[in-house]
Amino acid sequence: MQFRFYNYQFKPTLLGSLITLLCIPLFIKLGLWQYHKALLKQNIQTAFSRSEQINELGSDLIQNPEIYQYKKVKISGEYATQYQILIDNQVEQSQAGFHVITPLKINSGNQYILVNRGWIAGNAKHTEIPVVDTPSGVVHVEGMLWLPSAKIFTLEEKSQADITSKGWQTVWQNLDMQKYKKSVPIQVLPLIIKLDSNSTAGGFVRNWQMPADRIATNLGYAYQWFGFAIAALAIYLYMSIHRINDKE
Fold this sequence. Notes:
Blueprint: E1 3-5, E2 8-10, H1 14-50, E3 53-54, E4 72-79, E5 85-92, E6 95-106, E7 111-121, E8 138-146, H2 160-166, E9 171-172, H3 177-183, E10 187-195, H4 212-240, E11 241-243
Parallel strand pairs: 3-4, 5-9, 7-10
Antiparallel strand pairs: 1-2, 2-11, 4-6, 4-8, 5-6, 6-7, 8-10
Helix pairs in contact: 1-4
């Protein structure tokens, strides 16, 4: 394939054309992927910024938990430490540890909601479970409601018989709400509360990362991939266009 325009000739190689046809769509697709991630996180951040604080959870929470996601909540209750779990492989400042997940019995009824009380460091010997201090009596919990996603929190399916035979397991690899509900004899709501960093309700290290912390990063990656696409096209044209010497 050759084209001539005044004193210039477009004469690409087959290999160069194939590489360009593969690279440019790939780079654009990766750029759009990062850009859409940034938009999603921006929408989450906007929803959280506009959300009002609620002091009670409505009866529609079980059927439509997504409408409560990212809302700020302030409720009272008592921690049920007998059903507390530690989520393993959580890193804070390059140190391995656990997230402490404790169910809270809500004062207004017999329902429980899980509270992520933050991060604690693991012991030198990883098999030793760290001691977790928990306030007794009524506590006033403030935080953000979060709906665990099956895509984020994964764990292999286990039958009720398997759970019962093994007894209560304190350390979990992931937070699987369905497995947790099968493991406890209490009514657990589908949302969890990420304890506010200023709350005094028995919290630990709570450096929660909001989506806004990564929006700029995702946008930077998107522009980088788009730049690669433009650079690939520019290199292809540079290598394919030649000036014709009429004297030859």
